[in-house]
Specification:
Length: 501
């Protein structure tokens, strides 16, 4: 009898396992939809998600169906098909209402459809309608009792407030969510939430949202790093205190003392290592956030000055275009300017995309660049290349463009009898520098930073459009590097291209 019961038990167990596996297994429609979505083919992905929704609902797997349905909705309004998106949401809500699910689960699924409605109203800039959907989302979260949905609600509230310029409310909501996750030690989740909010701001071209998110992110990073370090330090100090108590209790035993001393030494080393590691992590985050702020400031400055610049030179463009004689300096200057503007725009719009790097022998690479300007120098100007026989990972197109621009500038500003040099230096396991130096009058300190700002002033285009160095710096930033002037070099000008692989 016992054997029969055991066999029956295992039979039921394996049946449950199989049923569970079938519940979590994705249907063929869903797998194909996700593949098409990943490839960026919106219409096929949307159609497959709708098929997956219908298929799941017919099988009674409503949760999976709702998830696929809202993905199809998102792909509808991605292409501004709002009427179709709202109609699909009504079908999904109808399926939820007619199901036999518990009320808490129904509320959780209604939350997903309401969230999509709010996202659409935000895209359409309908503040009142978005606020109404946000209130409905709160009621669904309360009825569902789902803690994850509570956090998601806070996140969507922040997006709503930032989108409609209510930064104070957005800060308060985001701080509430970050404080909850930070208090429970879920630092990675907080970091992921901030990164998601920043990415959404970029995708929606919401500069205010991006700037506000970065500011909050920087403040949280500083406080979280300090808090994490304090917790780890406190735990180690407690261990040291506990071991000291053991030493006091066993003072009469030399062996016990020796063991405790060894333990204290190990813990002291661990504490020191933890403090050093914490300091390194903190410094890394400070450097990272400063670089991010610098990138945002540069982008905002460029956008503001670009509009003013183009407006001021509009009067110059029309008579020049009417001539359309390539031999005339004005026409050539205008064509060069249009090319530079297009290049700068492409670099800015492709921010975040990976740049291909390849191993390149440095000595022949640098010699080849110097050879390209050798015929342009005169007046006894000396050319020098200092590059070791080694290879480095670079993007040859970008690095060649930057260095040739700097070398050609050096040819223009180096006096007779002067010197122009190109140097390569290895700075670490994953970092290196190119230095372009020329003798002569150094660039005044107050003008150095302005050299890298595009559209700073209106000028005669036949004498240059001032976009060369801004383009070079954008290329350096895309390669995870930077381009700057060495402030310590006083015998002329030295540009430093720093790259980090």
């Amino acid at each position: 009898m016992n054997k029969k019961l055991i066999i029956l038990f295992f039979s039921l167990f394996f049946c449950c396992v199989l049923v569970g596996a079938q519940e979590v297994q994705k249907s063929d429609f869903q797998q194909r939809a996700e593949a098409a979505d990943k490839e960026g083919t919106v219409a096929p992905a949307r159609s497959l998600y709708i098929h997956a929704f219908n298929d799941y609902v017919n099988k009674g797997q409503l949760q999976q169906g709702v998830e696929c349905g809202v993905k199809a909705v998102a792909l509808y309004y991605k292409e501004s098909f709002y009427k179709e998106a709202f109609e699909l949401l009504r079908r999904i809500d109808s399926a939820i209402i007619s199901s036999q699910q518990p009320s808490s689960k129904k509320s959780a699924m209604h939350y997903l459809t309401t969230r999509e409605r709010m996202q659409m109203y935000i895209r359409m800039h309908r503040n009142a309608s978005a606020q109404e959907q946000l209130n409905i989302m709160e009621s669904h979260v309360s009825a569902s009792g789902d803690e994850n949905l509570k956090n998601d609600l806070l996140y969507n509230k922040a997006i709503y407030y930032y989108t409609f310029g209510q930064n104070a409310q957005g800060n308060a909501v985001f701080k509430e969510m970050a404080d909850k996750l930070t208090a429970s030690g879920e630092y990675d989740k907080v970091d992921e939430v901030y990164q998601t909010l920043i990415a959404n701001g970029r995708r929606s071209n919401n500069a205010s949202m991006v700037a506000q998110s970065y500011s909050s992110y920087i403040a949280w990073k500083d406080s979280a790093s300090a808090l994490r370090l304090a917790r780890e330090t406190g735990a180690l100090k407690k261990q040291i205190a506990d071991n000291e108590a053991v030493i006091a209790d066993k003072d009469s035993s030399l062996t016990a003392r020796q063991v405790a001393i060894v333990g204290l030494s190990i813990l002291a080393v661990a504490l020191a290592a933890a403090l050093i590691f914490g300091a390194m992590v903190l410094m890394r985050y400070i450097v990272l956030t400063r670089k991010q702020k610098k990138t945002i400031k540069l982008a905002n400055d460029n956008n503001a000055l670009k509009a003013k610049f183009i407006s001021n030179i509009a009067a110059q463009l029309e008579p020049t275009l009417q001539k359309l004689d390539g031999s005339k300096p004005e026409v050539k200057a205008l064509l060069d300017f249009a090319s530079h503007v297009q290049t700068l725009s492409e670099l800015e719009n492709s921010d975040g995309e990976d740049v291909e790097m390849e191993d390149t022998p440095m000595q022949p690479f640098c010699e080849g660049l110097m050879d390209q300007i050798r015929g342009k120098v005169s007046g006894g100007v000396t050319l020098a290349v200092n590059a070791p026989k080694m290879g480095a990972k670079i993007n040859k197109e970008y690095v060649s463009h930057i260095l040739l621009h700097l070398l050609n500038n050096a040819v223009q500003y180096t006096p007779d009898g002067g010197k122009i040099s190109l140097e390569f230096r290895k700075r670490g396991a994953h970092s290196h520098q190119f230095l372009v130096t020329n003798t002569g009058e150094p660039i005044p300190e107050e003008k150095r930073e302005d050299l890298f700002k595009a559209f700073l002033e209106v000028k005669d285009l036949t004498k240059g459009d001032g976009l060369g160095l801004p383009i070079c710096r954008q290329m350096a930033l895309k390669m995870n590097g930077d381009l700057d002037i060495d402030p310590e070099y006083t015998k002329g000008t030295r540009f430093v291209l720093s790259l980090h692989v």
